Model the fold of this input.
Amino acid sequence: MLILILIVIVLLAIYAAAENLFILTVRREKLGSGIKIAHVSDLHKRRFGRENVRLCEKIRAESPDLIFVTGDIVSRTETDFTTAGATLRQLCGIAPVYIVFGNHEQSLPPERLSAFMEMLAGTDAILLRNASADINVKGRQLRIYGLEHKYSTYKNGSSYRHLDGFTLAEMNALIGTRPDGEVLLLAHNPLFADVYSQWGADCVFSGHVHGGAVRLFGVGIFSPERTLFPKYTKGVYTLGKTRLLLSAGLGKLRLFDPAEVVVYFL
Done:
């Protein structure tokens, strides 16, 4: 029995190492037809080849019409954004790229935030900080919004307790009321999906939760807010007329939750 337990532990360790060092998956969600969107989230410090060439080639092979990057393309402790810049330039060579801040970009110290912004300016990626952009893709007129919450919805000082909430009134104050037409929302944090639905987004692209970090029987276990079993972890969720499209992301330690790029057919 002891030998069997040791074998299981060794095999689990081998798999965990492979998952966190090598495995990269593509999840495809057919929700319509006409437009193909590649969704990248929560890269953090994870690398997929030099300058993330393996990641970028995976996306290139999907021939997306748009690429959405929903935050945490870097970690707050990083000081060199060379790889992030090279990654974004490769992605911009594939399709138009729209990017929003995650909590890690929001918490960069001022001097590193300045360096990060300089890096972004050296790419063609379109940064949306409580702003929107219009684009016509294959005859469909889209308005893409990027939402950035106040940082206290992620962390309150040094604590993850007593975090601030987020309301429809706050959302309207940040980005205005929903316009007519087809509206896509990029919002790093999925935990306020009910507010995004009240606002009226057709589709919301989010990350942040890393799929729950550890997944057992399809259930995500952990939240970055240091809570168990977050409501939204990975997949497609329907809230009224809104679809929450949640990526498990690419970086951070994980188990039975492989890094993923998501491709949506809308």
